[in-house]
Amino acid sequence: MTKKIAVLPGDGIGQEIVAEAVKVLEKLQTEGLDIEMQHGLVGGTAYDATGTPLPDETLAMAKAADAVLLGAVGGYKWESLDIAVRPEKGLLGLRKELGLFANLRPAILYPQLADASTLKPEIVSGLDIMIVRELTGGIYFGQPRGVRILENGEREGFNTLVYRESEVKRIAEVAFDIARKRGKRVCSVDKANVLEVTEMWRDVVNELHKDNSDIELSHMYVDNAAMQLVRAPKQFDVMVTTNMFGDILSDCAAMLTGSIGMLPSASLNEKGQGMYEPIHGSAPDIAGKNVANPLATILSVAMMLRYSLDEAALADRIEKAVEKVLDQGLRTADIYSAGMQKVSTSEMGDAVVAAL
Ligand code: IPM
Ligand code: MG
């Protein structure tokens, strides 16, 4: 049966990088991959056209799709808008409405890019971490939230970090399952020394571990985890953590690999539907210049094929094609080093299609 893919490029470089990922899908289509792509608006671009960052039409398209391919949202232009209609709300709304609670963010160092990392090659070579980030709960969505005026006229801002036991359990289950197919180690990251909610997080993960005792479980406070990620990142296999800690740690892990422009992600719900996006943002400073790195988005397509379309062999092919273009010495500006060949966004996309 034809699989439906909602393509939502969003803002800034989202447009350019998604165009390259679509080229890869189109190439596979010519070889018989049975998919149908529909384009929709999200983020600031959607706000400009319709007055909301997540139009009903886009949400309906995403809900009806087997998978969503998303670029990035946000930009200077929309920064002064009310937070309720900012581009980021489009992305957060999609995550919440589709129930995409499990965010998988692999941080893999391609050997070809060992020099692109700001860390010493011996610290990062061979790096292969999977960050499992809870994506539909925690402080991102907790109520109450807002800014109120106190009696003395001073403003007070507040957000709520809240997790239910069931939310912790299902994300920890995902982490244990993934670890079972990899290095069989899970590190759960919390701030249990200060925050009750993450003390409960730790208890729930420990309870679940009783049924997953084939996996080695450790716990780490988030401040230490940030330090360990730059000190000795290869100690980690799978890390599981809250929405906000995962947001921060995944950017940190990304830089170990040389560039945030290399890292894909998958966000899955209980039905196996998924949204696939690079972990980087819309990079308004370089938008429209044809210099952004499309590889994170192309690798997100590989994750889509693997997790939502049951096409693991095609996913492997895309990943191999990416390695091949790196072997050929092709580099976008973010991963460029002396002696390599600097290419544009579209040249990189064409090269991956050719290498397929
Ligand atoms: C990410 C991004 C988003 C987040 C923003 C754009 C809302 O930083 O996907 O990591 O904070 O989750
Ligand atoms: Mg982030």
Defining traits:
ten-stranded mixed sheet, Isopropylmalate Dehydrogenase, binds magnesium ion, single chain, 2 domains, 20% strand, binds 3-isopropylmalic acid, globular, 14 strands, alpha/beta, 356 residues, two-stranded antiparallel sheet
Briefly, what is this?
This protein has 356 residues and is of the alpha/beta class. The protein is 40% helix and 20% strand. The site of magnesium ion has 2 residues, from helix 9.
What do these coordinates show?
By secondary structure, this protein is α/β, with parallel strands linked by helices. The protein has two domains: 1-100 and 269-356, Isopropylmalate Dehydrogenase (3-Layer(aba) Sandwich), CATH 3.40.718.10; 102-262, Isopropylmalate Dehydrogenase (3-Layer(aba) Sandwich), CATH 3.40.718. Helices cover 40% and strands 20% of the residues. The protein has helices at residues 14-30, 44-50, 56-64, 87-97, 121-124, 165-180, 196-209, 222-231, 243-256, 295-307, 312-327, 345-355; strands at 3-10, 35-39, 67-72, 102-108, 128-134, 146-149, 155-158, 185-190, 216-221, 238-241, 264-268, 274-278, 330-331, 341-342. Strands 2-1-3-12-11-4-5-10-8-9 form a ten-stranded mixed sheet, sandwiched between helices. Helix 1 links the parallel strand 1 (3-10) and strand 2. Helix 1 crosses helix 10 (295-307), helix 6 (165-180) crosses helix 7 and helix 11 (312-327) crosses helix 12 (345-355). The mean pLDDT is 96. The structure holds 3-isopropylmalic acid (IPM) and magnesium ion (MG). The site of magnesium ion (MG) has 2 residues, from helix 9.
